[in-house]
Design a protein that fits this description.
This protein is α+β, with helices and mostly antiparallel strands. It is built from five helices and seven strands; from the N terminus they run E-H-H-H-E-E-E-H-E-H-E-E. A hairpin with a 3-residue loop joins strand 6 and strand 7. The protein is globular.
Length: about 170
């Protein structure tokens, strides 16, 4: 595991595409998957700038990526979020667990858990006491196993009348 760099952006984009297409089957329609890859999922370069986004390499390729944030944005790539992304207050706000993607060929091997452990420890080290995230439907079981509790659905509107359903989840650290 290492901090992601701008040199990784192309490989992370390819990872996101493979992960979303390969691990969301049966949870979202093909149209929702296609639209989400254009309008929602993508690289959030602010996480790279902040040094809070990590990649795990296997055999010279990026097998997983994920990070945490001390900023307000809960989810989405550069194309989805607003320009302003203010800092959170660790005393009152939950740090964000962000942009976890695992290549289907490396799924269920503990990579997401390893990323989470790093992110959780880093957030705690920055004074945060809680974590929040927006889970995709296939991610909910992982996050429940990591101690997150579902709070409510987040319907993410996309063009063409499509909606990507995510689940707002939180846990203490």
């Amino acid at each position: 595991m290492r901090a992601a760099t701008y040199g990784d952006v192309g490989a992370v984009r390819a990872l996101i595409d493979a992960s979303v297409r390969g691990l969301n089957e049966g949870r979202y329609s093909p149209a929702e998957v296609d639209a989400s890859l254009v309008h929602v999922f993508g690289v959030d370069t602010r996480l790279i700038d902040d040094g809070t986004y990590f990649v795990i390499e296997r055999a010279g390729e990026i097998a997983a990526a994920g990070g945490w944030s001390k900023r307000k944005t809960l989810f989405g790539g550069d194309q989805f979020k607003e320009q302003a992304d203010p800092l959170l207050d660790p005393a009152t706000d939950a740090a964000r667990i962000r942009a976890f993607f695992v290549h289907p060929a490396h799924a269920r091997r503990g990579l997401a858990r390893w990323l989470f452990e790093r992110c959780s420890a880093d957030a705690r080290g920055h004074g945060f006491h809680r974590l929040a995230l927006a889970a995709t439907l296939p991610g909910v079981p992982l996050y429940e196993a990591l101690g997150f509790v579902a709070h409510h659905e987040i319907p993410v509107p996309m063009p063409g009348g499509l909606t990507l359903t995510c689940i707002h989840m939180e846990r203490a650290i």
